[in-house]
## 1
Amino acid sequence: MKAVRFSTFGHPLKVTELVEEPDAALKPGEARLEVLATPINPSDVLTLTGQYGQLPKLPATPGNEGVGRVVEVKDSTAVRVGDLVFLPLGAGTWRTHLTAPAEALMPLPPGTDVQQASMMFVNPPTADIMLRQFVTLQPGDWVLQNAANSAVGRYVITLAKLAGYKTVNVVRREELAAELTALGADAVLVDAENLPERVREVTGGAKVRLAFDAVGGDSTMRLGDSLATGGVVVNYGGMSGKAPKLSTAATIFKDITLRGFWLVLWMKRTPREEQRALFTRLAGLIANGTLKTAVEGTFALEDIKDALARAMEGGRGGKVLLTPNGKV
Amino acid sequence: MKAVRFSTFGHPLKVTELVEEPDAALKPGEARLEVLATPINPSDVLTLTGQYGQLPKLPATPGNEGVGRVVEVKDSTAVRVGDLVFLPLGAGTWRTHLTAPAEALMPLPPGTDVQQASMMFVNPPTADIMLRQFVTLQPGDWVLQNAANSAVGRYVITLAKLAGYKTVNVVRREELAAELTALGADAVLVDAENLPERVREVTGGAKVRLAFDAVGGDSTMRLGDSLATGGVVVNYGGMSGKAPKLSTAATIFKDITLRGFWLVLWMKRTPREEQRALFTRLAGLIANGTLKTAVEGTFALEDIKDALARAMEGGRGGKVLLTPNGKV
């Protein structure tokens, strides 16, 4: 089997290589999976550069989620050859094959789109939990977010709509408005100095109490300045490379709070049953086509450097997927 | 009587003037007070420049707190001529005399230092509430703060010590260390890039979960980077003029929160009995000499511009007080 591997932290294009590894013999109760689709997430890039919040012992294979097909099972009836399953979380998924305990595998609901399912464990729960954890919203309430065209941003639009919340979506490129509106966005604004004023306009002066920030710097501050007294800005990414900040007028006079969200911490703190319930619910929404995000392109493992280069570019149209066993 | 007045927002030295006003006739139940001492707080300067969170209708007289002596009472036995009382909060206290309902006046505990009492209502409650509202501390826990030589900073040192908490105090000038240590500071550090590392050293690697920030910008970020997972940075001032920020490593990977604190909002949200209990407790601590802060100098109303200039300077040794009826 083949796997992407890195032995030092550094620029992703420089530190990654494709290596041949011997197939591991199955132990009783284990299944062998062929990896069908596995995405390149921002957290993978940050892991390669050594900037992520938890780093693997090196050498390591990147990749945290995806979908596989069972190709071999030893002494277990939990899954059968041919079954489509979610890859175990954090398994180092950028490889052609991996082995896992059959009992722990979660099957895809019948008819699920494999590409969409391969992106289920990182971004959809981030969007879903951020919508529920920080502020108790009621139907009709507004949510504000920047990086609205990101994978998380798009899931936020869909999940908010499903719950009856309205969204103001901040983007850098005007031409995204039509696409996000079609997805369910109630308002799309291009980020600019006058954002707080524009938010007031499009929401009719509603008290917006929750904002999501994946950009940092002044963009975070403009979100904070757009919120009503007592509002919360949740930072979950740093696309600008700048530290998220709030104006003192927001922190002091309007009691605006800046929080952070990291799914890894949430999983450490949340009982397994609650996690499983969340993933089952999201799997259902992906299976019935409610939750979906755009795919920029699929790449073979051999083209890992092209795939990484694309994943690290701005102005993408969607997520970059690796398809180590051919197109899916 | 004389009063400081301003009719437009702008530079404090330019917009303030001293004016003569007719003495108001007392209504039944009212008392006339001569103002003995009233401080120039940062919030007063921000009110004059128009940058504060709530602004008066102009023209207005600045000043929010102080101590007065009763010089006349009409049809009330609530106070007597000669009594020392706290001035009503937010009364526009930079004047020689003011009138107030006698029933609402809070007397100074006997033997209280008038200068210290005149500074009781803004900074001591800020320090006290910030120590209790955001993180539940236990004796032995550490608190981190910048601007440690400010009035609030010094009250934090004293109130923390009283509660059994330890303080790491960040300052800009090394020479303040001895003075703050004498006041009860457990550690004093000069602000610098390596602050997180220095905090670890002086606390023996303790999990610090609460920090107070009156500076903003990178200084806020260094406080955040010094805290343990789940910690809270409370911003209550912006001495640097820069927006408070956190690193994405702090927000996302360590769940650090940036909050703000404003006494005005606290008073709006807190039942009157609870407020009164707090002020009574603080008045006791000021009366017995436990709580005190340094005074840079006292100024007559006629010298309001000199007083404001001094209050707006860096590197002061303490608070600037107005003493409209002569030295106290």
## 2
Amino acid sequence: MTRAVPSAARAILDGDRRALARAISQVENRDPSVAPVVRALYSHVRNVPVVGIAGPLGVGKSSLINLLVARLRELGRTVAVVAVDPSSPYSGGSVLGDRIRFSRRADDGGVFFRSMASRGEAGGLAAATREVTRMLAAANFEVVLVETVGSGQVDIAVRDVATTSVVVLVPHLGDEVQTLKAGLFEIADVFCVNKADLPGAELARKDLAELVGLAAARGAWTPRVVSTSTFPTPPLGIAELWSAIEDHERFLDDSGQRATEERRRLATEIVELVRERVGRELSERIDRAPGLRKLLDEVVARRIDPRTAAERVERDRPRRG
Amino acid sequence: MTRAVPSAARAILDGDRRALARAISQVENRDPSVAPVVRALYSHVRNVPVVGIAGPLGVGKSSLINLLVARLRELGRTVAVVAVDPSSPYSGGSVLGDRIRFSRRADDGGVFFRSMASRGEAGGLAAATREVTRMLAAANFEVVLVETVGSGQVDIAVRDVATTSVVVLVPHLGDEVQTLKAGLFEIADVFCVNKADLPGAELARKDLAELVGLAAARGAWTPRVVSTSTFPTPPLGIAELWSAIEDHERFLDDSGQRATEERRRLATEIVELVRERVGRELSERIDRAPGLRKLLDEVVARRIDPRTAAERVERDRPRRG
């Protein structure tokens, strides 16, 4: 597209971190004024590994990510981390992000950390997170790690963001973990049994490897199971975890699945963006625009049911452009 | 509206529980064939208390609900319980619902229990749950209890369903609870400090009462704080909990807030139904309809960005009806 490139976009392409942080906040807050920046950056986005790190609270995702970042820096790769928090749409702010941020070395320009609050809906979050990961790729980060903090729905949404999904578990799974497990199992490209120093870790790894073997299909990727332990120095399994992730990224290219998946994700993203636009526009108008207001009156009076009202609203929604 | 009343709707109005259960499943699965039933029932819906019971896992919501149900039966009220589970959109099924169901007396026709799986999005869930609560009201249940199982986002969504929101907490709040608390605090009409037998319960109650006092605004409802304990026989505070809920329901009528809130909820529901329709229709067409497919190709080729694509899709979306 032939549009003028906004200065913010140029700054981001030139590695200006403050411009990057500002644009990310605008995306997070769904500030429409960031649209030209997002547009301008899109053609500069390269396909980088976007690694989702999912799993319930308390399995040690943050420590794992700190060590993965360190490992990637050893390998000379620049890395950005996006932590997605299940904070309330009311209180907004990111609760766990700060704790994580402080554990990072502020003086390393090759690392960028950002936490994002999840605004109510998994779908909208995925769309926003995808825009942010693309901004980070355009800003020349070679790997993007996306951590989700303990909400099943948000974890699942990572599937629409990450090229490789790592699911972190611990030897003894409590009730809640069991609840999440089924869903998590289906998104995992790599399983990470963390706290491998705990009793039962080897059994958990074996069980998972077996489950994974049963689920394996010809030509498809068979999820890898890696054991890690972040407590000892040096920690265990971090290099293995990263190579399992790289193996999956290689599989995506060799199998042609990266292109298929990216197409599916972009389709999902477009649908979500349209849903968002429609929802935003309608929320503003439904109790203001005279026609809609009358319709709402009829629904309140129980003369028209909400489904019928929704049909009429959709039918009568003004076209754009 | 002058439409023929489907036999399923008649059966539900006449108290046929199997017809009711079937229709609820159809709503839960977003089966469009249930639309005529939903429509026919809408004009028969009465305003009954819809009590949301929210709070993190492990605070004892299920036991509280069992006791509230018993209390309501003592008072001669019929009651329906909807348990909303944070199950994954993949594995679908309701995990905790069954455990709860088994603890109920199957032979009491004045009680109806149903668990619903939350399909991915808090918004869609709220819309589906609202349709179900209206069906239950049309089926002559005098009180509807909605339990949400431990996902912050889902808890928050209860605000769009319940006329009275009860937030259940326990004396010593862990990290996760703290994370949810901010959001939960803002939806609570009644706070229930459960496990009041534990040390620190009285302090927790006092702290909450103080917080609530600070937040109190003139003319508005000041959330009530009730202590309960489900372990001793007889259990403690259940009657008090129910009267706090009834006080809030009375406030809704006296202040005229019931009407305002119901209007807001219906507006939100209509917006969500439109979003759903748009999303469903578009997901089906985006990689099939030639025009959309070409557009998606351009996005995949990074020649058009997703936001621009979304604008065009919305502009060109065919009108209905």
